[in-house]
Design goal:
The chain is mostly helical and 432 residues long. It has 19 helices and 7 strands. Strand 6 and strand 7 form a beta hairpin. Bound molecules: heme C (3 copies).
Length: 432
Amino acid sequence: MSKIKKVAGWGGVAVIAVVVAGAIASWQPEIPALKTPGSQTFSTAQIEQGRKLADLGDCAVCHTRAGGERNTGGLAMEIPFGTIYTTNITPDVETGIGKWSFDAFKRAMRLGVDREGHYLYPAFPYTAFTRTSDADLEALYAYLMSQPAVKYQPPETALNFPFNIRQGIVTWNWLFLQPGPMDTDTHQSAEWQRGAYLTEGLGHCSACHSPRNLMFGEKGGEDHLTGGVAEEWTAPSLVANSDAPLNWSHEDLVTFMHRGYSANHGVAAGPMAPVVNEGLSQLPPEDLNAIATYLTSFQRGDKTAGTADKLNQQTETHVEPLTSEGARLFSGACMACHAQEKGAQMVGVRPSLALNTNLYAATPDNAIRVILDGIQNPAKTDLGFMPAFRHNLSDAQIAVLLNYLREEYAGKTPWPELQKRVTEVRAETERK
Ligand code: HEC
Ligand code: HEC
Ligand code: HEC
């Protein structure tokens, strides 16, 4: 045997040894099945506490498919390697989590491992949920086990090779999961700490609002909450580098989370609408205040609300005269709802486009999506609906209109190659 072969041989043995050691180190036992604890096992207060935590964690947003019963799973989450289906988290014994003990549930939330010991895909945001305290996990468990048990077997998740090998997630977890409850920062107020706990834990804001690396791990440190992507929408930065023309004040942020709308910013549409509708708007005021205290502590600079009036006046004065094609398109298609004349009565809110972060953003995607598809699922129905313009405006018209709004209202240089991007987004959204 030549020397090279020998070395290669030993290399192979070494690789196998490492793989075996890794498999042993990562092996998670099955946690024995348990008779479903009935709701009488838990106190009403604990179940109610768990319900609020489930709202904050958006459990039902992901674990309910369109038209399906609450928390029975089956929602398809498309990722580049295939489709992941959410699971049934009602206490049904066969198709849900009826056999799960508290320890099994806690392990899923802290380590992303199911009762039988399989690794779960990080589409389930356990990297954030792991921060939850034992007491809150107990309350969540109490709530989940007290729901009606509904028999429904969601479709099987089937990803392409090698992503279908769940054991591979071990490596990902090793890089991106820091298991365990939140560290306390004793330099900060109790309210700030509570806010950090809610935002970084069950609230999992960073799952959408932080950028991700090539391995789909959240970028941390200075990149934390600096803006990310969610279902192909841009989730704007929530910290110092925000594109919003005004700083987020405590009051604006609380109103936005509660109502899905803030007069100084705009509406929560796209994937943010259900986060508000089913999650944040259900929270008690003290929790919203805590989240706002935490998040506004990262605002920098002096983009103050004093400029809001000025920006709004700009919207008023710029509707006439109709010297450009952009102005004419705006006047024909949008002004009825989006001009700020005083005293006009319209159904719903009339978000000021001069203050809309999406017009200031580096990418035009959210604005394009809103024009193409309108807003059919508002965060709250009293905000009103916006009609879709997919069939009324051409790609060229949408590009002219959007760059008109960007230049006139936001005072920004036009987005380059905008029409091309409109065509691409139209094609992407048509396929759905
Ligand atoms: C962003 C979407 C999303 C949110 C929000 C979410 N989940 Fe999930 N969850 C998933 C997906 C996807 C899976 C399946 C992962 C897999 O198959 O590997 C899952 C799996 C689970 C499992 C494992 C169930 C099983 O049978 O293996 C539990 C338990 C669970 N989620 C509980 C919760 C709870 C409790 C909440 C709210 C606090 C929640 N999830 C919020 C997406 C989500
Ligand atoms: C499922 C993904 C997702 C999650 C989870 C999520 N967001 Fe969002 N968020 C978005 C998207 C997308 C937008 C842009 C919506 C739009 O343009 O209408 C947004 C917009 C916002 C805005 C408005 C920003 C601006 O400048 O206009 C705020 C504030 C916000 N989110 C706060 C939060 C907080 C706080 C949490 C956690 C409690 C959270 N979000 C969780 C996706 C998400
Ligand atoms: C029939 C009334 C109506 C018309 C016409 C209309 N909008 Fe809207 N628009 C709304 C309402 C209402 C909202 C807020 C909806 C919500 O979130 O519930 C909105 C929201 C928006 C937003 C904010 C989206 C976000 O996610 O932050 C933008 C941008 C926007 N409209 C642009 C336009 C443009 C451009 C036109 C013209 C092509 C237009 N709208 C025409 C009613 C309208």
